[in-house]
C-alpha cells in the first residue's frame, strides 16, 4: 500500500502519517526501488490503533506507551480488540442518533413523558427551561428510569413551583442579588442526592460545554443560583 491508501484506510490524512513517522510513533516501512514507501496490513492496523486511541483522548505519549505494550501481541488479537472498540463506538453513535430522532419527531421517551405528566400546570419560564434541560440530558444518554424515579416526587410537589417562581423573579436582578444564597440553598435541599447519582459519568453535565451552555440560558442572577446549586452537588460527591 502507498501512503495515500493506508491513510484513507485508517481514516487519517497523509500529513498525520508523516507526522507519526517523524515523531517515531509509526515505524518507517521499507521502500520500493522507486523510493515509495510500501505499507503492510500490520502498518494499517497500527495506524488505525493510533487513530482510535487519540479519539479516546490519549496524548501521543500515552499512545506510544500503549503501542509498546502491544508489540508482543498477535495481530489477530489486536485486530479483535480494535474491532470491539469500533463496534462499541458504532453502538454509541446509533443510540445517540435514535435519541436525536425522537427529539426531531417531537416525541419524548415514555419515562420522561410520564415525569412531565406528573408536574402541575405552570406558566413559569424557569419550569419550561428545566424541562428543556431534562430533555437534553436524556438526549445525551444521561436519562434513566432511576433518574426519573428520583425526580418524580419533585415533579408532583406544588412547593417546587414556588422555587421556580422565586427563580423567575430574579430575571432582571444583578448577579449579587441578596436573594441568591437562600434560593440556591433551598433548591439544593429540594433535590435528592439519588437524582444526581443516577446520572451516568461522561454524560450530561460531564460533557464538554454542557454546563456553560446551560448557564448561558439564564439571566445573571438566575445563572448564579444554578451555578451554586451545581457546585453544591459536586461538593457532596461525584455526579
TrEMBL record:
Q: Which residues form the HTH merR-type domain?
A: 1-69
Where do the TM regions start and end? none
Query: What are the UniProt keywords, alphabetically?
Result: DNA-binding
Pfam families the record matches: MerR_1
Database matches in InterPro entries:
DNA-bd_dom_put_sf, MerR-type_HTH_dom, MerR_fam
Q: Which domain of life is it from?
A: Bacteria
Note the PANTHER family from the entry: HTH MERR-TYPE DOMAIN-CONTAINING PROTEIN, REDOX-CYCLING DRUG-SENSING TRANSCRIPTIONAL ACTIVATOR SOXR
Name of the molecule in the record = MerR family transcriptional regulator
- Species, as recorded: Streptomyces cirratus
